[in-house]
Amino acid sequence: MSKVMIVTDSTSNIPAELFSGHPITVLPLQVIWNGEIFRDGIDIQPGDFYNRLATEKNMPSTSQTTPEEFKQAYSKLLDEGYDILSIHISSKLSGTMDSAIQAKRTFNGAAIELVDSLSTSMAMGFQVMSAARLAKMGASIEECKAVAQAAIKHSGVFFAVNTLEFLHRGGRIGGAAAFMGNVLNLKPILELREGKIEAVEKVRTLSKTIDRLLDLVETKLDKEKGPVRLCAIHANAPAEAEDLLARAVKRIPGHLVSDAVISTVSPVLGTHTGPGALGLAYMSGM
Known about the structure:
The chain is of the alpha/beta class. The chain folds into two domains: 3-34 and 42-47 and 61-152, Rossmann fold (3-Layer(aba) Sandwich); 155-284, Hypothetical Protein Tm841, Chain: A,domain 3. The protein is 37% helix and 27% strand. The chain contains ten helices and 13 strands. A hairpin with a 2-residue loop joins strand 9 (187-193) and strand 10. The chain is globular.
């Protein structure tokens, strides 16, 4: 039986404590700033990115992983004897999946399978981890793909941003466009739904934001079937993320929570959310 490698991209934001020891390869998207190209998580780290974002007059843009980068990664892994399961950011948010499709076509007959996560950040990260855990145990590529596809329906993310301007500028605003032109100080709560960013509601204070994020995630959890996996995600707001995660764990019986972690939004995603974004990603029932 062939060994399986899970390939994902840098927007998955999987914390080290989950990532370590699993067969996962991460390909970076790119941040473009004043003509310079930075590979997400390699040439530019979240701390440096958010520090620069606070003072830089010119805002960055982003670019997908290229077909050539996928070809190089796939070729190396195939030479090493791996079957490849490639799981990536929603095709409705990025062209990265299209790059993977183009690259796969150049390896006619090779054991390469693709999954559109219809998500990003740790909502996608939990999908990746579900497949990687099976791969580590020696499961086939078909088994790994099946569990990753099933995880799409069991995972998601709600998040709040300080302003919609960053999403609007990057063209990722989707249904949240209805919230443009907000009354000052309203914080939009958004959801990744069927691969797109959709508006949920608006709140006035940080405490109410956290309350609503918790309420919204709790309605999605299939606690009868356990386990529950949670990740507080943040764009340079670590204290708020710690508070959110602690309160989330208190709402759920401890024996059901198998993962409770914090993840920093990568520079590529931070380009579109802006600083201060806060969210809660989940997967349950599997």
